[in-house]
Write a structure and sequence with these properties.
heterodimer, A: 113 residues, mainly beta, 5-stranded mixed beta sheet, globular, B: 113 residues, 11 strands
Amino acid sequence: DAKTTQPTSMDCAEGRAANLPCNHSTISGNEYVYWYRQIHSQGPQYIIHGLKNNETNEMASLIITEDRKSSTLILPHATLRDTAVYYCIVRVANTGTASKLTFGTGTRLQVTL
Amino acid sequence: KAGVTQTPRYLIKTRGQQVTLSCSPISGHRSVSWYQQTPGQGLQFLFEYFSETQRNKGNFPGRFSGRQFSNSRSEMNVSTLELGDSALYLCASMPTSLQETQYFGPGTRLLVL
């Protein structure tokens, strides 16, 4: 699986959009970009994933650059409850190894009043 | 649907003891994976069970074992506990072994004294 690089920490004011970047310059054509987050003392929570098209769900939007070397997770209206560590992962789909998730250090997002 | 549940949530043991942790996956999910999370090592894959069979295994010593029952509930056991086994143990479930999105439980926090 390709390696990802994320900023260590970010701050965001409540109500504003939180834009979390992720670099994955060695991504392969068959690798998806996944985002999870982990709120303190809880298990990781799936947010969104995509291959090359932008994706949106009730939690967030995922913007993947045309060359797929980077992506941005957007929380459109951050709240205090979005304070968490956000992990960007790239992995190949449908290989039978879906369970072997490897999280890097992630981005610690602090949402403030 | 109820989420992934893990019991107990907190546990204190002493070196040399053994411990059994339990995980109930989301109803209908047949794949259960176990992870160890520590501040120093991050999230590390232990093993995955699907239809009562171990499908994937991480790089942990034989003191770590698991099993899955016919109702998809899973247990993991750690024998001869060491101080370094103190960690958050997470269970995640998926509908099948080839799905990409894992749903995590809240974890069991184990402290070995």
